[in-house]
From TrEMBL:
This is Secreted pectate lyase. InterPro entries: Beta_helix, PbH1, Pectin_lyas_fold, Pectin_lyase_fold/virulence, Polysaccharide_Lyase_9. Keywords: Calcium, Lyase, Metal-binding, Secreted, Signal. It comes from Streptomyces lincolnensis. The keyword Cell inner membrane does not apply. Residues 118-247 form the Right handed beta helix domain. The lineage of its organism: Bacteria, Bacillati, Actinomycetota, Actinomycetes, Kitasatosporales. It comes from the Bacteria. Its cofactor is Ca(2+).
Amino acid sequence: MRLSTGRHRRTRTLSIAAAVAVAAGAGGVYLGLSDGGAQAASRTVTVSTTAQLETAVRHATAGTVIEIRGGTYTPSATLKSTANGTSSARIVVRAHDGEKVRIDGSGLADGSWLAAIDGDHWTVQDLTFQNSPAQGFVATSSVGGVFKNLVTAHNGGSGFTLRGDGTTDNLVQNLDSHGNYDPAGHGRNADGIAVKFGSGTGNRITGARLYDNSDDGLDLWQFSSSVRIEHTWAFGNRNGFELGGGGVTVGHVVGNNAAWDNTVNGFTENSNRGGIVLNRNTAYGNGGVGFSFATGKARLARNLAVGNKGGASELGSSAVSAANSWDRGVVAPAFKSTDAAGVYGARRSGGVLPSVEFLTTGSTVIGSNMD
C-alpha cells in the first residue's frame, strides 16, 4: 500500500493526578519525579485486558512503561499514539517478564492498521502483532525508536513499517515478519519490512527473519536516506531485498544478509541509481537473479551467489564488482548444508537468529555468516 508521508509533531502531558488516575485504572502505578516536576513524572502500568491496554497506550507520556501480561488482546480500533518520549524518559511497551503477548487485529474494521505510533523515543518489544486487516505495525516520522524482538504475522498489509520524513535513528532488531498478504492489492504490497515514502538518517535493521510475504521481504521504496541492513534473512517472498524504487537515488548499506527461495531476485536495486554498498551477502536458489544492479552505481564485494535461475548477477557499467563469486579468479566455497529446515527454529538468547549450518561455508572472506 502506498502511504502518503507527513510529519506531525505534538506535545501532550498529564498532570500527576491524571497520571495516577489513568495508571490506577489500567492496573497499577509507579510514579517518580525528577527536577522537572510534574512533567517528568514516570509510571509503570501493568495491563491484563484489552480495555486496559487501549487506555494505557492512549494516555502514554514520556516515562510511561506499559507492561502487558501474557494473552491475546483484540483492540476495537487501531492502537495509536502521537505522544513523544525523550532520550532519558522513553515510552516503553513490552511483554511482562517474558510472557507471550499477541495483539490481534481480527476484529478491526476493513482497512485498519493494528498499531500506529507517530512519536519519538518509543521502545516496543517482545510482542506479536497479527491478523490486521491492513498494516500490522506502523511508525511514522519516529526519532530514536527501538523495536525489538517483535513478530508481525498474517496481516493484510506490510508487517512492519517505518515511514515519513524525519524517520531518524531507529533500530529494528530481531524482527520476525511472515505470512503478510494484502488482499486489496492482490498481494502486491505486503512486505515483511517496509521503510518507505520518507527520509531520515541513522536507521538500522538487524537480525530480521522475513519470509512468505506476498511482496518483498524488505522494501525501501521511495525512502531517500541511507538505511543499514545486516544479519537479516529473506526467503519465500517476491524479492528478498528490494533496495529502492520510485525515483530515489541513495546509497543503502547491506552487509551479511541472505536471500533464498524468493520468486524474483535475491537482492535488487529496483531502479535505485545510488551507490548501494553490498558486502558479504548470499543469494541462493532465487527465481530471478541473485544480485540485480543493472542501472546504478552499486559497489559489490565478497558476495556469494549460487543456483539462482536468472544467473548470479546482473550488473550495469556503473557498478563496481570485486571478489564476488562471479568475478574472474574467485572460487566459490561449497555450502555445508542446503537443508533449510533449521531456519524456522526458535531464536537464541536475546532474540538472536537460530544457529544453522544452512548456507554456511566456513569462509571468512565471502558470503554471509548466517548469523
